[in-house]
Design brief:
Elements: H1 3-25, E1 28-34, E2 42-47, E3 52-56, E4 70-77, E5 83-86, E6 89-90, H2 96-102, E7 120-126, E8 135-141, E9 156-162
Antiparallel strand pairs: 1-2, 1-9, 2-3, 3-4, 4-5, 5-7, 6-7, 7-8, 8-9
Length: about 180
């Protein structure tokens, strides 16, 4: 092999490594539904390269997200390895456009409960599929260690997140594999 052949070979190897890494580490998007209301729609975006999790509780418009954005928040695996968990984060006040999306202009926060402005929240995403083939996302209050919250101070929201549905345009088109 001459010098040009070696350069071409190294170029092909480098491009294949980049393509493989991008396919494994590209951000994954999931369509989430509230556990009791199967018609409500939310979006969860997981960026495994930067280890960030973003949640949109209101349906975004096509092409760009106009929902109420929560995140991106850094996440890490739990010690047992079966969940992704964000660090505790506080709710921010909603802007006027976001209040209109929520259809209740009098609320200042997305989740309203006692001491919503002071309480820290955390997101837990199960890495194991449930019996319906979806991943369970829980948004819960995260009190400081050794603190017990009253019932009106707690928040426990559960969503089931599925890979987005792909319309088949051609016969035998495979859906992307979504693994966490």
């Amino acid at each position: 092999m001459n010098k040009n052949g070696v350069k071409i070979l190294f170029g092909i190897i480098a491009i294949s490594i980049i393509v493989f890494a991008y396919s494994k580490l590209s951000p994954k998007q999931f369509a989430c539904v509230y556990e009791s209301d199967k018609l409500s729609y939310s979006t969860l975006k997981i960026d495994r390269f930067w280890k960030r999790m973003t949640f949109y509780p209101v349906e975004p418009s096509v092409g760009r997200h106009e929902g109420i954005k929560m995140g991106p928040y850094a996440y890490q695996r739990t010690k047992r390895g079966d969940h992704y968990r964000t660090r505790p984060f506080g709710q921010r006040k909603l802007r006027e456009e976001e209040k209109q999306l929520k259809k209740r202009s009098y609320e200042s926060y997305y989740w309203t409960f006692k001491y919503a402005d002071e309480t820290k929240l955390a997101m837990w995403l199960s890495r194991n599929k449930n019996f319906n083939g979806g991943y369970e996302l829980q948004i819960v209050t995260s009190p400081p260690r050794g603190t017990r919250l009253q019932e009106d101070e707690k928040l426990f929201e559960t969503y089931i997140c599925y890979p987005p549905r792909v319309k088949k345009k051609k016969y035998f088109k495979k859906q992307k594999k979504y693994d966490l």
